[in-house]
Amino acid sequence: MTAGNTVARVDGPEKVTGRARYAVEYQLPGTAYAWPVGSTVAAGTLRSVDVEAALAVPGVVAVLTHDNVVRLDPAGPISPAHGAAVPDLLLLQDREIVFRGQIVAAVIAESAEAAREGASRVEATVDERPASLHLSVGDPGAVVPEMTNDLSPGRTARGDADAELAAAPVQLDLCYDTAAQFAMPMEPHAATATWDGDRLTVYCSDQGPNWTAVTLAGLLGLPETDVEVVADYVGGGFGSKAAPRPPIMLAVLAAKLVGRPVAVALDRPQSAPLATYRSPSRQRVRMGATDDGRITALIHEVTGQTSRLIPYVDQTATMSRTLYDVPHVRTVSSTLPLDVATPGWVRAPGEAPGMFALESAVDELAVHLGIDPVELRARNEPAVDPGTGYPFSSRRLVDCLRHGADAFGWFELSAGPWESAHGRFRHGVGVAAASYPVIIFPSRASASIDAAGTVVVEIAAADIGTGARTVLHQLAAEALDRPMSSIELRMGRSSGPAAPFAGGSMGTGSWGWAVQGACEALTKELATAGGRVPAEGLRVVHDTTADVGALGAYNRHSYGAQFAQVRVDRFTGETRVERLLGVYAAGRIVNPATARSQVVGAMTMGLGMALMEAGETDEVLGGWATQDLASYHVPAHADVGDLDAVFLPERDEHIGSVGGKGVGEIGIVGVAAAITNAVAHATGVRVRSLPATPDKLL
Ligand code: MOS
Does 7 reside within a domain? Predict the structure, then answer.
């Protein structure tokens, strides 16, 4: 295993010179533009769509409606993890309106402007039903799914948490809320689709071209080989592009209708209902402990919201099952179907809101007992996974906490809050643990050399801005023992060797393993051939399915500690984050620069989650009251103070050949709790409902 090596992004020049092409920049000859018409009601049945006025707009070519759309096969084969996204992809297939903003038609025109003008003239008549829009806890309509997000059970229990809680000398019963959040990638959801007979090519902003191709083929009833999905460059996704979303299918169906390429690019207000969102959460955490800070019982109950289409639930309670050495634990994840769009993955879905609640509660316990919160966490450190009894593949949580405490000056600063500006500002510090699962998914990659000596490494994975293109290129160069400049790395196309999506922080570990395997196999074949390349060249494909299957029974997680220092204005209630320090142990860090960028970005998202980001439901009309970056606030540069991230060295032999646990999502988990814990330290006000806007501090 070699140490990390900072290599500048290989695609940096393409990006900063504008040569990198994004989803609607392919400029295929004859491209038309589609503009969706969204339902203005939240619930009802579509009676009719009047398209005459739209068709009269100069430049309008056609209007896609229920009457002329291609039939999709809702039972067609789809990729892993796409199930929750499929109902939203079945555009115009029936007349039921289940959320405001749902696509009821789309106008196709020679220009985006004409399409937009046409869309404003489409008249949809709907038999409206009263809509339920409010997430109220305890609603009898809430359901507990067998599995949350296909990942883990909706209910878990070990020991007798209720009895142990009742018997515990110290008992806490606390409720936490987190707001809905939008991913808000810099590049909104967009796609250009073109048909050549029954063969389909889609250029789109998507985190997983290979998986998206499989799902599109399944729904369209096409062989997988007849669908090519291209995601050469993706301007961020943050989970919202990990499964295909309606704009991709809209481009496909519109292109089919008019027999020419069609481009779709959502604006921000359209993105709010169509590009998925993080469900708001209502969480209750009950914790029993001894006077010396041993947590003996933990009950974590979560309610989220979902659409009428599918009971989607984030895995919000999962960390409560394994993070601390608690003998008696019960968790429940439920969801309330409402007349809203289906939520989905956004930025550590589940772990980020769940750890806000858990790490706030641990801080409240520490304050209650007068035990330092770093020390309290160390006292509850498990030797093995308390849920399964499996050993940890590696775990440096306490090291992250202690190293961070020293680097941050925790023990001096946490002694008491302080003031400045003659009492106007109160300052305080907070800490929280971070953890995120190590997800390794089977992948393929190929490596080839031709007679001229050109080496090509290929994988159907997407670089969504994380630096994956650079990191995989580095791993290929290392495995082939050749300079990076002598290797061509191809990615972003579904026709390449099959790869999972860029999600769950699993890219480097999953794709890198396949890339290394292919490169090592090519090196061996070359050696067998005596170093001479045959005239027809050499090509090998490595598939890690068996390798991944052979990984032993371990609990695999990355860990970290988040430290925050805040300043609260006593007159305005405004919280500013003066310092954030994240210390992480995430296995091998292949490229320290791109890894640091990822977690620094994620910590900034944690700051947004803590203080400003809130998707607000319009409880009169349905849909979202916050639809753009003027009403949905994300951190700007001026909101970010002194921000730093440190990776502790870590070697993990049980997570595959790359040895990296994945970075990205670990950087957001725990940040919101660290910040609100710091606010509580500074002011004595415990904010249990995110975001911690000024009104909650006055
Ligand atoms: Mo990430 S929210 O798993 O793309």
Answer: no
Per DSSP, the residues of 597-645 read HHHHHHHHHHHHHHHT--B-B-TTTSSBS--STTTS----GGGEEEEEE
Domain that holds residue 332: 147-181+278-438+553-697
Residue entry with tokens 């919202």: 240
Query: Residue 3 — very low, low, confident or very high, per pLDDT cuts 50/70/90?
Result: low
Number of structural domains found in the chain: 3
Nearest residue (by CA) to ligand 1, atom 2, is 239
Distance 238 CA to ligand 1 centre (A): 5
Backbone angles phi, psi at 94, to 5 degrees: -140, 180
Write the pLDDT tens digit of every residue in 16-31: 999 999 999 998 999 9
Specify whether 212 is located in the same domain as 95: yes
Residue 311 lies in a domain: yes
Res. 1: pLDDT tops 50: no
SS3 labels along 219-283: HHCCCHHHEEEECCCCCCCCCCCCCCCHHHHHHHHHHHHHCCCEEEECCHHHHHHHCCCECCEEE
pLDDT at 2 over 60: no
Same domain, 384 and 400: yes
514 shares a domain with 572: no
- The ipTM assigned to this model is 0.97
Q: Ligand 1 — pocket residues by CB below 6 A? A: 207, 238-239, 242, 345-347, 349, 503-504
Q: Please state the pTM of the whole predicted model.
A: 0.97
Per-residue tokens: 223 = 């062989």
DSSP secondary-structure letter at 547?
Answer: H
Q: What is the pLDDT of residue 151?
A: 78
Same domain as 451, residue 388: no
In-domain check, residue 23: no
Evaluate if residue 152 carries a pLDDT over 90.
no
Closest CA to ligand 1's atom 4: 239
From ligand 1's centre to the CA of 574, what distance in Å?
30
For the segment 208-231, the average pLDDT, to the nearest whole number, is 98
What does the pLDDT read at residue 668? 98
Q: What is the pLDDT of residues 380-414, one digit of tens each?
A: 999 999 999 999 999 999 999 999 999 999 999 99
Whether 113 is catalytic is no
In the listed set 498, 516, 549, which residue is the last one of a domain according to the structure? 549
CB count within 10 Å of CB 622 equals: 24
